[in-house]
Every structure is written in C-alpha cells, then in structure tokens.
Amino acid sequence: MKKLIFALVAMAMSISIAYASGGYEYKGSHTGFDVTAENAVLNMVESQTDPETEKVNIAGKTYKFEYFNNNFPEVGGYLVGAVHLSDGDDQYVFDYYVAGENVVKILLYTKNGKVINKQVYPENEEAGSD
C-alpha cells in the first residue's frame, strides 16, 4: 500500500511540475527523477529563452527547444539533465550539470549524434574541469 501511495504522489508531483513548467516536453524513464534538479534545469532553460522568438540562447547561438530528458544520472558528483535542442537540420544534446538548486555547467554533449563534449557554460572553462 505504501508503494502505491508513493507512486501516486510521485505521479501527481510530475504532472503539477509539467503544468507549472510552461509545457516543456519530457522524455525518459524518470528512474533518477529529482524535483530540485529538474527545477534548476527548467529555470536555467527559461532564463536562456527569448520570450519573443522562444529560442534558447546558449553561448551566443540560438536553438529550438525539442524536449527535456529528466532522468538525471549522477556524473562526477553532479546530477545531469539532458536538454534536446535543434537549429534547422542539426540536433543537439546539452547536458545541464546540477549541484543543489543550481546549474553549474552546461556541456554540448552531441551534435547529430556525434559526441562533442564541449563546455559552453560557464564559457571561460574547459569541459574537463570540475
């Protein structure tokens, strides 16, 4: 019975967060679901989004938001959420690294499926630095 109640509460929280987040589309198994990390990523994406064009601006380039995978595996002590963006024919995956309630770095993980692994936020640091 406790498992059923927990599952219902988790589902209700997920629905309310999706509603409150302005309609961002989610994909993923949600096995690593973390509300605080999810809010950190969504707040960062929102702060990077031009309200007129609805384009996400990262490191001086603009992208169309496709979807957000909020599975949140742990990598190097950070929770990582994958944000999928596009610009024309190219598809990108940006990994948002979360510590506590803040996004501390963003990596351009892939472009059209090819691993890039380049840090784009903060802009003055390299991908390998933690």
Task: Give a quick rundown of the structure.
The protein has helices spanning 2-20, 35-48, and strands spanning 26-27, 55-58, 61-69, 74-75, 78-87, 90-99, 102-111, 114-121. It is an alpha+beta fold and 130 residues long.
Describe this structure in words.
- Helices cover 25% and strands 42% of the residues.
- The chain is an alpha+beta fold and 130 residues long.
- The longest helix has 19 residues, at 2-20.
- The radius of gyration is 15 Å and the shape is globular.
- It starts with a helix and ends in a 9-residue tail after the last strand.
Question: Which range best describes the helical content: under 10%, 10-25%, 25-40%, 40-55%, 55-70% or over 70%?
Answer: 25-40%
How many DSSP H or I helices?
Answer: 2
Strand percentage: 35-45%
Unreliable stretches: 1-23
Query: Using only CA atoms, what is the Rg?
Result: 15 Å
Mean pLDDT: 81
The assigned structural class equals alpha+beta
Largest sheet: 8 strands, mixed
Number of strands: 8
Distance between the termini: 43 Å
The SSE string, one letter per element, is HEHEEEEEEE
| Overall spatial form | globular
Topology:
Blueprint: H1 2-20, E1 26-27, H2 35-48, E2 55-58, E3 61-69, E4 74-75, E5 78-87, E6 90-99, E7 102-111, E8 114-121
Parallel strand pairs: 1-3
Antiparallel strand pairs: 2-3, 3-5, 4-5, 5-6, 6-7, 7-8
Features:
single chain; 130 residues; alpha+beta; 8-stranded mixed β-sheet; 2 helices; 42% strand; disordered N terminus
